[in-house]
Amino acid sequence: MRLGRSWRTAAVLSLAALALLPACNRRKPAEVNDIAPKFEVNRPRAPLGSAIEVTYTWLSGPSAKKLAQDDRAFVHFLDSHKVLLFDDDHVPVPPVTAWEPGKSYSYTRTKFIPIYPYVGDVDVRVGLQPVGRGERVALKGEDAGLHEYSVAKMELLPQTENIFLVYKEGWHNPESSAQNPSLERTWTKKDALVSFKNPKKDIIVYLEADTNSKAFDQPPVLTVAVGGKSGLVVPIENSEVFLKKIRVKAADLGDQEWVDLRLSMNQSFVPKAKGINATDDRELGLMVYHLYVGEADKLGKVPNVVEATPVSLPPMGTASPAPVPGAKPGTKSSPAAKTASPAAKTASPAAKASPAAKPASPAAKASPSPKK
To answer: Which residues, 6+ apart, have CB-to-CB distance to 203 below 8 Å?
Structure first.
């Protein structure tokens, strides 16, 4: 019995000794920098597959310390179980090494919400972390752990809340980026057609795209035409990704049940003929990353929107120089007639009408993209 009590006494004394170890042996908490992140979105409830406008603000307090390296901002959108759905990681503008105490820095980014089998509440968390190895910056705010700060709540709505796009002729199969397999994009031919039900309201068309500008015999020019009446002429000066937001008035959509949206290049190219890809004999025009149509009154504040102007295009399949505004465009067959035909359904990449059912074809993956 004495031996047992002695053993227990020794154990208690050992634990007490461990508790009295010098504090220097323990890891000190990171010193909080006087920088506070802020997240604002133009609509806190948004459907899957739609576009949102996010304004980031970094409030650098009077005691903020200069950051020695250009940390990236990480932005995580988590579901109700705190599982990462998607992100908006980016480099702040201006870079963090240029931030000064007592100032604030704001900028707005367009984010296209991916398609996920999830609807419901979303927790948005942000922070700063080095590009390579290193520790995240300790900021002011509600730390959810690991210097990840909870800054906003959102709600993801079903994809059916969007204006549904029906992809018709002029589209190749979707393909994935070699650098980012989750990023899907689709080449058009010289002309590509999409139709959607007429909302009888003003709309905003989002188009994110690029092309291989050096593959064209003449400087490439894109015309976005909605309803055959209005749109935007876009000279493409280089091969960088561009984003256009075009407001189209309800009157320009007409009174028909369906509206055509046409993407028309002034010319196209064949990678094989240009020596870009020896096996790719497709006719290519524009590489489309995102095409989204939303009702203007449901989108909230959208920056950098341009108003649609009158445009003119010849009928699809007709070679032409750069488009000239003014003349009446050719008449298109109705979407109902095209979607009713089984042959038309087979010929068009119908899977692209629903991003959730939009797998990249093996053939497209096997052939490297001719861009750049």
So the answer is: 163, 226, 247, 248, 250, 253, 293, 294, 295, 296
Regarding the domain delimited by 163-352, which CATH topology (the fold level of the hierarchy) does it fall under? Jelly Rolls (2.60.120)
Poorest-pLDDT segment among 76-80, 162-166, 342-346: 342-346
Please answer whether residues 302 and 204 qualify as being in contact, where contact means their C-beta atoms are separated by less than 8 angstroms: yes
User: Residue 101 has which token pair?
Assistant: 């105490």
Q: Can you give the pLDDT at residue 326?
A: 39
Distance CA 118, CA 207 (A): 25
Encoded amino acid at 199, one letter: P
Q: pTM of the entire structure?
A: 0.79
Picking from 87, 90, 89, the residue whose alpha carbon sits closest to that of residue 79 is 87
- Choosing among 2.60.120.260, 1.10.10.10, 3.40.50.620, 2.60.40.1930, the CATH entry for 35-159 is 2.60.40.1930
Q: Name the residue ranges covered by the structural domains of the chain.
A: 35-159, 163-352
Q: What is the pLDDT of residue 115?
A: 92
Q: Around Cβ 327, how many Cβ atoms within 10 Å?
A: 12
For 234-277, the pLDDT digits (tens) are 999 999 999 999 999 999 999 999 999 999 999 999 999 999 99
Give 132's contacts (C-beta < 8 A, 6+ positions apart): none
Task: Return d(Cα 217, Cα 190) in angstroms, integer.
Answer: 14
